[in-house]
Amino acid sequence: MRALRLECDNAIVGGGLAGLVAAVRLPGKTILLSGGLGSTAVSSGVFGPLGPDAEAEAWLLKLMDGTGCRYVRGKCITSSLLIKKGLVQAYTLYEGSPRLISINEELTGFENIKFRKGRSQQEMARILDVDDSAIEELCGLLSGFKCDMAFLPPVLGIARTDEIRKEMADILGFEVREYVTAPSALGSRLLDALRKKAAENERLEMLDPVIIERIVDGHIEGSMGTKGKRDIHVHSDNLFIATGGPLTGFKVDGDRMFEPLTGATVSGDIISDLDNKFLSDHPLMSKGIGPELFIHGFDRVRVLGAAACGFGLYGALMSGYHAGDGL
Amino acid sequence: MTDRCVKCGICEMVCPSFLSALRSLDMERSARPPAEVVNCTTCNRCVASCPVGVPITKAIERMRDNIMTPGYMETLDYITRYGASVVPDIELHVRPKKCKVAYFAGCLTNYRLRKIADAVSFTLDFMGIEHTRLPEVCCGSPLNRIGRFDQAREMLEKNMQQFRKLGVETIVTSCPGCTSTLLEYQDEIEVVHYLDLYDAHDIYGALKKEGYRATIQYPCHLYRNVSPYTMKIAEKVLRSMCDYVPLDEPERCCGAGGGVRRNDIGLARKLKRKKVDDINAISPDVVAVVCPQCSIQLSENFSNVKDLSILVARNLKPS
């Protein structure tokens, strides 16, 4: 079959935080091509430290209001009792003197319950989404805790998290929130909410999964579907590269680390900064290739998120928020 | 391939069913595959979401090769005995002719939901696309889903011989499973879904706007395996015919696929609970589907489930 040919004002490659924020905001017809989830989906969902871009922060708070993943300014607590400040998911807001309860792992400062042993927390989150008996079982384990509020690991569902919390509060008589870990369902909730927001944008067409193979002369070329049997060519005025860091985007070739679609190399001394040991210890972390690139055939090429500035949700939010500035 | 897995757990979060792909892949080389692999609906959401492109579903299907359940036995028995994935309720009456285009309907359509085949044939005629039908055998998809890849190839080859004999250059499909299978396992003949053709022939202009509200459930094997753009087409078709209301998570599997409905009807029904809630939340006049499996699965709960091909054909027919 002939390749699908699409035209638009803006083409975004990459559907993580930066790509989706840009997709929600950019004026004009926009096509977002996404080839799988990346660092956002396994992040803690915390934006911080606050301050560098108050406008983007306020925008995100407003955007996420009314989604299943509401954000507030405040504090959250991690599994190592670290208090993090920033934009945090409302369900992780740490306040008062709650009971801290871990599941199947002994953590200093936490009381421990045993629930669905052998399952990861991510799997538990999804089990609670589809299985009411699991919610009842979890409530049974928590019913002995006398408190105003309890903090569990992020296992309280993904798609049905609002309902699950309400159901649990009704049964238990106290609110259950979550402490912060990564990878966890927190990142997945953020991504799902952003995708739904982006889908409301009528100027936007989101195509997923699409694997982009090359960018040539004003065209983006790739293949659609998990079988990769349908070709797609997208022509756009502006191109936004939001392919992410080493988990999904960057490739390492000897002492060179580069963005595979553009060939742009990560600046700095790779050997000392980003040697193999560093990469294997920090699979999500990297430097970026900077925000601007020239590729023949496009009016403007901008790099967003981890590809531009390295690891971190805050940087991805900022670059996505400002993706359309001056266009 | 699974060596690439970075254990990020995304597959565990996107799965609509009761299994951990991560754990299953960890046990891939063990003598006894984990029993939970039968719960996979092969919706491929994990594959589409995997940051490093591990072919998770294929690995799970391969593990099922060593598993025999009453449901798997049924599939193997029907295909061996009848050449179809279900017991045929009629003898297939088609008149094959030499033609460059063939419409391949698939077992569930031929023997359970014939109106889909009639609707697709009608619309192909409407667009002036001359086509033939053929005495099909199962495309092999249900066999691939349970890891019987060799038997699936044999079925494919039986169909291929017929296509070759008739001089077919393009296969038009309506069933997502057939579409994905015919695309994946052979490169000799072009495969297009009817939605691709509706779009290429700009069918939108011929459609009349009517007063009903409809939503759509995405078919995993068409939307995710073949082309996400097909659902852009489907939505555009719906907008041309009616008031389209999007479903929350239309891409979430209905729970029937991958042999799950036949193998464990209780699980299949459990998995569609959120889907049923989501549909009830928008209470549409019509629940459009583009897959016979989704159609059968959702018709248990809703009396207004209609295949999109039927909605289109009805709309095109002079009243």
What does this structure look like?
The complex is a heterodimer of chains A (327) and B (319). Chain A is of the alpha/beta class and 327 residues long. Chain A has helices at 17-25, 54-64, 121-130, 132-142, 161-172, 185-200, 270-273, 276-281, 306-309, 313-321; strands at residues 4-13, 30-33, 71-77, 83-89, 99-103, 111-113, 149-152, 175-178, 204-207, 210-216, 219-224, 230-241, 251-253, 256-258, 292-293, 300-303. In chain A, strands 1, 2, 9, 10, 11, 12, 15 and 16 form an 8-stranded mixed sheet that branches. In chain A, helix 1 runs parallel beside helix 10, helix 3 (121-130) crosses helix 4 (132-142) and helix 4 crosses helix 5. The longest helix of chain A has 16 residues, at 185-200. The two termini of chain A are 35 Å apart. The mean pLDDT of chain A is 92. Chain B is of the alpha/beta class and 319 residues long. Chain B is 48% helix and 8% strand. Chain B has helices at 10-14, 21-26, 45-49, 56-64, 70-82, 107-111, 114-126, 141-145, 149-166, 176-185, 194-200, 220-226, 229-241, 260-263, 265-271, 273-282, 292-299, 308-316, and strands at residues 101-104, 170-173, 190-193, 213-216, 243-244, 286-289, 305-307. In chain B, the strands form 2 sheets. Chain B has a 4-stranded parallel sheet with strand order 5-4-6-7, sandwiched between helices. In chain B, strands 1-2-3 form a 3-stranded parallel sheet. In chain B, helix 17 links the parallel strand 6 (286-289) and strand 7 (305-307). The longest helix of chain B has 18 residues, at 149-166. The radius of gyration of chain B is 19 Å and the shape is globular. The A-B interface holds A 1, 4, 36-39, 41-42, 119-120, 122-123, 125-127, 129-131, 158-160, 183, 185, 188, 196, 199, 205, 207-211, 224-227, 229-230, 232, 244, 247-248, 283 and B 6, 8-10, 12-18, 20, 22, 44, 47-53, 57, 180, 183-184, 190-192, 196, 224-229, 232, 246, 248-249, 252, 270-271, 273-274.
